[in-house]
């Protein structure tokens, strides 16, 4: 899931939905390409498997774009192969079908099925360690500027001893780009890094500052900050849990099991509990209602 200005992105395989819960309107995008384009003398061309979506606003035209980062594998004679990375874009209210960007994205593989983080007109995906390269890459994020549909690489924070791709999460928190990374020496310790500076300032590149070190009563796994106040940060972790961390008094924290929460059932206008058989995964996004049309 992803959220931007009251719109929620719900990708599932080759099907992508954009929903506005406030207006109860749903837009189903045209199916994404399931077979790669036929170009060159290819012996075998494997359909896209690794893909990741994102939703954001193009500040130049005040338009909302859905982006799809995907790769496919070409096997050419004699016994050679290579990966190709592509970026597909669908502009809501303008495009009738998906289109690939004129510029190719960096030859990296991003974390599959993990939606991009929207931050100040750009979408950012976490690069897979190793990815499409035989030699390890420096920890980084692929940045896609929605305004001109250009690409760049944003370095990850200098976590010690090394940035953990799978357990870390990138998010926008009160106008700042924030990374939560689990400490390598103690899985019960979480480092919160924030980016200082402008991504587009070539003369003064942005840098990462270690904002907080949080110690929890459990092992942090894939922990993501969802919202924050000057006194409290709420995290989503281990699929089913929310953790309300009090920055002023760390002993006064709340652990919420989302499977035990009730939800508003629109058909009956009642609050009901989840049933185990109906739950595969639970996703959480910070949401601000809006009347954006789709």
Automatic annotation (TrEMBL):
Pfam families registered for this protein in UniProt? FBA_3
Q: Which InterPro entries match?
A: F-box-assoc_dom_typ3, F-box-assoc_interact_dom, SCF_F-box_component
Q: Which residues form a coiled coil?
A: none
Q: Which residues form the F-box associated beta-propeller type domain?
A: 3-195
Report the transmembrane regions from the record: none
Protein name per UniProt: F-box associated beta-propeller type 3 domain-containing protein
Taxonomic classification, please?
Answer: Eukaryota, Viridiplantae, Streptophyta, Embryophyta, Tracheophyta
């Amino acid at each position: 899931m992803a959220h931007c200005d009251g719109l929620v992105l719900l990708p599932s395989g080759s099907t992508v939905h954009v929903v506005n819960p406030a207006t109860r309107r749903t837009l189903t995008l045209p199916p994404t390409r399931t077979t790669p384009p036929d170009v060159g003398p290819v012996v075998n061309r494997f359909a896209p498997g690794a893909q990741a979506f994102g939703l954001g606003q193009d500040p130049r035209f005040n338009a909302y774009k859905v982006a799809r980062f995907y790769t496919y594998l070409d096997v050419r004679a004699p016994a050679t192969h290579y990966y190709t990375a592509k970026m597909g874009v669908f502009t809501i209210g303008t495009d009738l079908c998906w289109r690939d960007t004129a510029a190719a994205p960096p030859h990296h593989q991003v974390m599959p099925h993990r939606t991009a983080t929207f931050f100040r007109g750009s979408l950012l995906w976490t690069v897979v360690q190793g990815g499409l390269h035989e030699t390890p890459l420096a920890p980084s994020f692929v940045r896609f500027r929605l305004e001109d549909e250009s690409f760049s690489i944003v370095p990850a924070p200098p976590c010690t001893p090394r940035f953990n791709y799978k357990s870390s999460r990138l998010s926008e928190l009160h106008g700042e780009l924030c990374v939560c990374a689990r400490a390598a020496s103690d899985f019960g310790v979480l480092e919160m890094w924030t980016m200082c500076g402008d991504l587009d300032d070539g003369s003064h590149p942005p840098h990462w500052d270690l904002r907080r070190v949080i110690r929890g009563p459990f092992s942090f796994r894939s922990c993501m900050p969802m919202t924050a106040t000057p006194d409290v940060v709420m995290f989503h972790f281990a699929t089913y849990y929310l953790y309300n961390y009090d920055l002023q008094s760390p002993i006064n924290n709340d652990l919420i099991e989302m499977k035990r929460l009730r939800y508003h059932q629109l058909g009956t206008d009642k609050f009901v509990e989840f049933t185990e058989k109906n739950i595969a995964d639970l996703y959480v996004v910070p949401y601000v209602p809006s009347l954006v049309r789709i």
